[in-house]
Amino acid sequence: MVFGKILIANRGEIAIRLIRACRELGIANVAVFSDADRSSLHVRYADEAHCVGPAPSAQSYLNMDTILEAARRSGAEAIHPGYGFLAENAEFAHRCEAAGIVFIGPPSSAIRTLGSKTSGRRLATGVGVPVVPGAIEDLSDAEAEACARQVGLPVVIKATAGGGGKGMRVVREPADLHSAIRAARSEAASAFGDSTIYLEKYLSAPRHVEMQILADRQGHTIYLGERECSVQRRHQKVIEEAPSPIVDEPLRRRIGEAAVRLAQAAGYVNAGTMEFLVDSDRNFYFLEVNTRLQVEHPVTEMVTGLDLVKEQFAIAAGEPLRYRQEDVVIRGAAIECRIYAEDPFQNFVPSPGRITGLREPGGGGVRLESGVYVGYEVPVHYDPLIAKLITWGRDRLEAAQRMRRALMEYTIHGIQTTIPFHQRVMADPDFLQGKIDTTFIDRRFAGRPHAWDESNRDVALVAAALYAHLRDQAHLATRSPQTGRAESPWKLAARRAALRP
Ligand code: MV4
Fold first, then answer.
1. What is residue 478's predicted lDDT score, i.e. its pLDDT?
2. Is 156 in the pocket of ligand 1 (CB under 6 A)?
């Protein structure tokens, strides 16, 4: 391997995942941390660690000067940015290039081109990749109205600079068009400092399907299959899986080849993801490119057997791809549940605090990517994602059954997490049948307003306590198979206590 030492410009579970790849390859690794992360697991796990600033990420994990200085001081030859923070920052990639440090990701020029949704859209149209019908550019109010009439309602107005659904407005009635355009513009102006908008036909209940690609510097590009990410809450992904339940081999090839054409048109190098919407007739439409390693990359690793981070290292070091398209085979199915420090019973409010108890799942087909330990305090300053639980199965049902089992084993005390939410989804008949789209969570959970509220939890607590009591009474009544006598209550109490985390 060409790199002797790599700096990891991130924190939490993804920093650990990246350090693990370094360790397996014998690459020395350097962690960076903020004042709030002195006792974080990624700092303890790394070979060496450098403080890059105070708790707010703008002054630490986004501080290009201190991060580049840490790289220089430690003698790191390359920087992996993980996801979030500086991962899609063209200026940072450029500054690494200028400093003679390899940015493990695409060239800054590709990040810049693909950072704008409209330039991505234009590129796609140019290479025959379908986009949602609508208008591309920088619309005036009058043009937007004419365009809406042309494609037909409903339409969606999106901010050119946008992301995460911000500045997005759906228009169903002609009378609402004018005010929606104005609202979208002002929201975009205040959120991104850019009031340009574009307009698309609105697809009802689409699926979010994204295609993973790898491209080397020699001009080879391959696709590694899709991930289905339709289970989202407020534009935040919650559950992802590979393959998508609605994508068969011919559709995979069509989407994959479209993604490869796009990557090549953009001069893309390294790992990347092309996002698509898929409608109920399985038409697919390109949305945007994510120029980074994504949170949900493990599901692709589980079904392809590849290690995407190691591939990123090799590509960044200038090596040609070690796989041809025909070497990529999708085997079985994988599901990822994002474990957030959020309270699903309180409308998913963040739940920072100290972890006082922890039991982690294991066993066949289970992968846990976690950034926490007992005694660790989840800080308030950053994203509340604390772990990702991934399961693999020969088919989707086995992966889901394993997820249910692993979630049952998983106990985190001291903070609230989204584990109970996932337990419900894994028992949901629609989910189990693959009937998921971007309206799944609202449909299944918001439709029943009391599904997650506090009063319901109190009822559940009383019911659970009653159940536990009755169950224990039943245990006490059982007889020892050896002696035929009732089991000693002391023995049973001790056994119960031992099972408590
Ligand atoms: C859409 C759409 C329907 N029609 N575009 C939301 C965030 C942004 N990345 C794209 N989004 C959508 N664009 C058209 N023309 C529906 C959504 C959408 C969505 C997309 C992916 C995953 C979850 C979503 C939840 C709500 C809306």
1. 64
2. yes
Give the pLDDT confidence score for residue 77 in this predicted structure.
98
Pocket test for ligand 1, best of 156, 240, 289, 440 (most atoms within 8 A of CB): 156
Is the CB of residue 262 below 6 angstroms from any atom belonging to ligand 1? no
Going by the DSSP 8-state scheme, the letter that residue 58 receives in this structure is: G
159 Ramachandran zone, left/alpha/beta (phi>0; psi -120 to 50): beta
Alpha carbon distances (Å) from 142 to 149, 155, 181, 275: 11, 15, 10, 30
- In the chain the first and final C-alpha atoms are separated, in Å, by 42
For residue 416, is pLDDT > 80? Answer: yes
Question: In which residue are the tokens 């303890």 written?
Answer: 44
Query: Band of the pLDDT at 141, cuts 50, 70, 90?
Result: confident
Per the CB < 8 A criterion, the answer to whether 422 and 390 are in contact is no
CA nearest 245: which of 432, 87, 18, 390?
432
Distances (CA, A) of 375 to 16, 32, 442: 18, 21, 35
Counting every residue, how long is the chain? 501
> How far apart are the CA of 134 and the centre of ligand 1, in A?
14
Q: Three-state DSSP class for 254?
A: helix
Residue 388 identity: K
CB proximity list for 167: less than 8 A, separation 6 or greater: 157, 158, 159, 184, 187, 188, 191, 192, 197
The mean-pLDDT minimum among 126-140, 271-285, 417-431 falls in: 126-140
The 3 state secondary structure assigned to 347-374 is CCEECCEECCEEECCCCCCEEEEECCCC
Asked if 404 is an active-site residue, the reply is no
State whether the beta carbon of 438 lies less than 6 angstroms from ligand 1.
yes
Residue 238 Cβ contacting ligand 1 at under 6 Å: no
Q: How far apart are CA 423 and CA 400, in angstroms?
A: 10
- Ligand 1: distance of its center to the CA of 406 in Å? 31
Structure tokens at 340: 């957030």
- Identify the residue whose C-alpha is closest to ligand 1 atom 27: 438
Report angle CA 392, 398, 399 to the nearest 5 degrees.
35
- One of 185, 227, 233, 292 is an active-site residue; which one? 292
What is the Cα–Cα distance from 284 to 278, expressed in whole angstroms?
4
CA-CA distances (angstroms) from residue 174 to 140, 144, 178?
A: 17, 12, 8
